[in-house]
Amino acid sequence: MLRTILYRLLVSIVVLLCTITLVFFLLHLLPGDPINIKIAGNPVSPEVVAKLKHEFGLDQPLHKQYLQYLGKVFRGDFGKSLVDNEPVMTKLMAQFPATLWLTLLSMAISIVFGVLLGVVSAVYRHRSLDHLIRLLSIFGISMPTFWVAILLVLLFSVNLQWLPASGVGGFQYLILPAATMGIVGSGLIARMVRGSILEVVHEPFVRTLRAKGLPERSVMYQHVLRNALIPAVTMMGMLLGELLAGAVVIESVFARQGVGRVILDAILAKDLPVVQGAILLTASIYILVNLLVDLSYAIIDPRIRQA
Amino acid sequence: MNAKRSLFSRAMITVSVLMIACLVLFALVPGWIAPYSPTEMNGAAILQAPGGSHLLGTDYFGRDILTLVIYGSRDALIIGISAVLLGGGIGALIGAIAGYSGGFIDAVLMRLIDTLMTIPGILLALTVSAVLGPSKFNLIIAVSISIIPSFARVLRGQVLTIKNRTFIEAARSIGTSHLRILFSHIAPHAFSSLLVMGTIGVGSAILMGSGLSFLGLGSSEEIPDWGSLLSEGRSYISMAWWIATFPGLAITLLVVSINFLGDELQSAIGPRKG
């Protein structure tokens, strides 16, 4: 068990290092000199440009910049924004709670509706209710999130005027964005849960349970479900990543604050340190969650613990 | 194999195929079907509601929405299909090589794929298209890169299960080259799962492509694609609901049809499901 944990931890660190490297070099391929963004087209003397380059370490050769960046990242320093000089870490941490709440609420919506629909669909398999749920969940994963967002705004903000269309503030500002992402997430989870249950139903141990005369109800809810929900745990990790990334689009549609919004603005303004920092933040969360998922597997499923 | 397909499945397959055929036809010969020219701006008919001479209404420039939706199918299909051919092809190749070689090469390639996976698809595509600049071609590359990992993982898994079978050993023992084993003996077995992934991949590539162009990272050509049309519609949402609604509906119907066919293909090749 300890060996498994250590091994997973090591792999996660290696992957995180690779991600830092990839993002660093990818962003340094960006056309245009970051200093031009800094001076924003103002006429400045070459001395000022040289001084700024020195300040941001841009006068160093690329490999030195890389090593310096690596060193800083491990001390929790993501550098400063080229646009407003604010430390990237401060900027991200100020925005992170908004994104976290949005992600958690949409995750909760996805899990509640997704698992419910998935289970109902599998219990009533190949009947009308199952067909209906399958169709709904296909729509759920096929609709562009920004379109769902616009439709919800049309219905609840423009026509009914129940909820605000955009902005930040109390809970009522969170409902539409979270519902938008929840619709997609529910579709994803429902399909996954249905598929997973239908796979377990065909396993020999279920036939044995039925053969010994156990009522279908307890076969389903006590035995099949327990086993079927194990793979769904992996799905939760992936879902979290999807939702965090989906926040980029959703926060922009609803003009919300958040990490996604920061990323988009930074990408459009070519504010390298911010883009770098934000991607690394998202990637680290993703890696951490997947590490936890992997480890929780070992706790939930004894077969994996022994392997 | 499964029991007979249900009536529901058969009906849905028909609807999906018809829908896709329709949109492919739109993409091939938009000029024959669209009622107006996509660049025609009618100053007398700005933000007209659906009905009358403009079935789906007009946008802020007086362009016919139905016409723009018909023309937009071309970009959507081009982006979806080329991203899957490019990204799926590269991903499948990486996965096949990793699975077949094993050992060190496998470890290096799969850590590379793991790295790509830590950056969620849309974020990766967003960054890549920002690096490359907005254009249709760069959009395709950005979307392709984000679908490499899933293809690589599945193909690697497939190759791992096939490569130790006796017929591969037989091929190897008579001196068949690695390349030949990979392409003529292993590849055909992976074809069906590639087909399923490719189908579903086209759907998600279309979604991602339209998302990127909705965010302003698509091509800025004269004829807008569905994503940028939606983005225009968002600005006029309280005045003209139709501008954003219909292109979104087009994306949804296309992707739903593709995903449904993907599901049915999956259940046709995987007898355990369903």
UniProtKB/TrEMBL annotation, chain A:
Entry's localization field: Cell membrane
SUPFAM superfamilies, A to Z: MetI-like (SSF161098)
Protein name: ABC transporter permease
PANTHER family on file: DIPEPTIDE TRANSPORT SYSTEM PERMEASE PROTEIN DPPB-RELATED
Domain ABC transmembrane type-1: from-to ranges: 96-297
Gene3D superfamilies attached to this UniProt entry: MetI-like
CDD domains in the record: TM_PBP2 (cd06261)
Listed PROSITE patterns: ABC_TM1
UniProt KW keywords: Cell membrane, Membrane, Transmembrane, Transmembrane helix, Transport
Species annotation: Paenibacillus agri
Keyword Ion transport annotated: no
TM stretches of this protein: 7-30, 98-123, 135-158, 170-190, 228-254, 274-300
InterPro entries in the cross-refs: BPD_transp_1_N, MetI-like, MetI-like_sf
Family per similarity comment: Belongs to the binding-protein-dependent transport system permease family.
GO cellular component, one term: plasma membrane
Topology of the protein relative to the lipid bilayer: Multi-pass membrane protein
GO MF terms, alphabetically ordered: dipeptide transmembrane transporter activity
Automatic annotation (TrEMBL), chain B:
SUPFAM superfamilies in UniProt: MetI-like
Keyword Transport: yes
Keyword Transmembrane helix: yes
GO BP field: transmembrane transport
Membrane topology classification: Multi-pass membrane protein
Subcellular location: Cell membrane
Membrane-crossing residue ranges in chain numbering: 12-33, 76-100, 112-131, 137-155, 194-219, 239-262
Domain of life: Bacteria
Domain called ABC transmembrane type-1: residue spans: 73-262
GO cellular component: plasma membrane
A UniProt-annotated Pfam family: BPD_transp_1
Keywords from the named record: Cell membrane, Membrane, Transmembrane, Transmembrane helix, Transport
Protein family membership: Belongs to the binding-protein-dependent transport system permease family.
Protein name, as recorded: ABC transporter permease
Organism listed in the record: Paenibacillus agri
Lineage: Bacteria, Bacillati, Bacillota, Bacilli, Bacillales
